[in-house]
Structures are given as structure tokens and as C-alpha cells.
Design a protein that fits this description.
Elements: H1 2-18, E1 27-31, H2 37-45, E2 50-53, H3 56-65, E3 72-75, H4 84-90, E4 93-97, H5 100-112, E5 117-124, E6 134-135, H6 136-146, E7 152-158, H7 171-187, E8 192-198, H8 205-210, E9 215-218, H9 220-223
Parallel strand pairs: 1-2, 1-9, 2-3, 3-4, 4-5, 5-6, 5-7, 7-8
Helix pairs in contact: 4-5
The structure holds pyridoxal-5'-phosphate.
Length: 228
């Protein structure tokens, strides 16, 4: 595990340097869905301190088990509004907010615990019907709406491009999210930051870094293939 993690960190650093970016501007989120708590602890001991989870119930159990370790937990899966109450208690950053309705629920629950919940807006940049995320041309209006909520804070955008075995093919989608974030940044919406871009997974994180990713979400390359 140590070797895998060091290898990933080196690749992140190299990809950043190659395109003139600072390695420390790219953060590794170790994706630990379906991975047991003891494996997460092992990855923590090997230098990972941010973990991404997809399912509230599963994450809740593991977060409880690992409560005495200083891990920052991110939520990266599809979130239903009726789970907002749990999400605000468990996660430092929620990558996958794709509707005003969900943001409103998070705002309400975050207010109850006196928290400002950091979120990213998930954008369906490819427009595939099977993908979650707000449509690219709706992102601006949704962000303006959500920016009015006092207990959520938009920090940037996230996307899941279509799957290709060739990372060249995902480049246009990464570029699309990058350009969208720049366009939204120009609007200078109050309480909205576009500093973070969550894109890139095991298959394509180097390409994502080239297009400005600041959060790469990597599971398989750290923990091996998931058997579900
Ligand atoms: C599972 C998952 C990942 C990690 O994918 P790998 O290919 O295992 O690196 C990243 N992002 C999201 C949203 C995921 O669900």
C-alpha cells in the first residue's frame, strides 16, 4: 500500500510540474467506498488523510470506527435530500450537490448544527442521460440560487466524465468543466468560490490535472480493484 500511495503521489506531482502547476495545489482524495476501516487506517498510516465515500450509511459506520484518527471525510456519491442531516454531520466537503433542493436541505441541516457546509456543484458535463449532475447550461442559475443560502458555501465544481479507456478522449470534458468554472468565476457571485475543481480518477487523473483539477479522486490505484 505504501508503494502504491507513494507512486500515486509522485505521478500527481509530475503531472502538475509538467503543466507548470504547483504540486501542492492538487489534493489527493483516497476513494474508500466498499473498503474496510482497517484498510483506510493503513492508507492513513501511509500518508493519506482525505477519504472520499459514496454511501452515507457505510461511511457513517467507518467514520465512527475511525473517529480518533484525524481524517477529513469527503462525500462524492449521489446524495438524496433526506440524507442531508447525516451528510452535514459527517463530511467536510460534499462534492456532489446537483440541485437547489439538495442544497436547501443541506443548508437547513447545517444551520441546526451551526455549520457552514462546504460543497461543490456536480456538473454533468457530457450531458449523458445516465449521469448525475446539473446540466452545464443550468449551472449558473443553480449556483446563483444556492449562493443565497447562508449555511452552505460553494467552493467549486465536480464532474464525472464518461468512461473511456483512452484518457485523450476525456480531455474535452475536463476542459469543459475548467472553462465553465472560469466563466462562473467571472460573474463574481457573492459567497461563491471557483477555486476547486474535483475531477480525475485512477484512469485519467493526470489528464485532469492538466486541465486544472485541484482534487483527484482515486480509489483503485490505492486499494486495488473493488469486488462489488
Ligand atoms: C469510485 C469513484 C471514484 C474512484 O474511482 P477509481 O477508478 O477507483 O479511482 C472517483 N469518483 C467517484 C465519484 C467515484 O464514485
Amino acid at each position: 500500500m505504501k508503494e502504491r500511495i507513494n507512486n500515486i503521489k509522485e505521478r500527481i506531482e509530475k503531472a502538475a510540474v509538467e503543466c507548470g502547476r504547483k504540486p501542492e495545489d492538487v489534493t489527493l482524495v483516497a476513494v474508500s467506498k466498499t473498503i474496510a476501516a482497517r484498510k483506510i487506517k493503513e492508507a492513513f498510516d501511509c500518508g493519506c488523510n482525505i477519504f472520499g465515500e459514496n454511501y452515507i450509511q457505510e461511511a457513517g459506520k467507518k467514520i465512527k470506527e475511525l473517529a480518533d484518527i484525524p481524517i477529513s471525510w469527503h462525500f462524492i456519491g449521489h446524495l438524496q435530500s433526506n440524507k442531508a442531516k447525516y451528510a452535514v454531520k459527517l463530511f467536510d466537503l460534499i462534492h456532489s450537490v446537483d440541485s437547489v433542493k439538495l442544497a436547501k436541505a443541506l443548508n437547513k441541516e447545517a444551520a441546526k448544527i451551526n455549520k457552514v457546509q462546504n460543497i461543490l456543484i456536480q456538473v454533468n458535463i457530457s450531458g449523458e442521460v445516465t449521469k448525475s449532475g446539473t446540466e452545464a447550461d443550468e449551472a449558473e442559475s443553480i449556483i446563483k440560487e444556492i449562493s443565497k443560502f447562508e449555511n452552505v458555501s460553494i467552493r467549486g465544481l465536480m464532474t464525472m466524465p464518461p468512461f473511456f479507456d483512452n484518457s485523450e478522449k476525456v480531455a474535452p470534458y475536463f476542459n469543459g468543466l475548467y472553462r465553465l468554472s472560469k466563466n462562473i468565476e467571472k460573474l463574481d457571485i457573492k459567497n461563491v468560490s471557483m477555486k476547486r475543481l474535483s475531477m480525475g480518477m485512477t484512469q485519467d487523473f493526470e489528464m485532469a490535472i492538466k486541465y486544472g483539477s485541484t482534487l483527484v479522486r482515486i480509489g483503485t490505484a490505492i486499494f486495488g480493484a473493488r469486488n462489488v
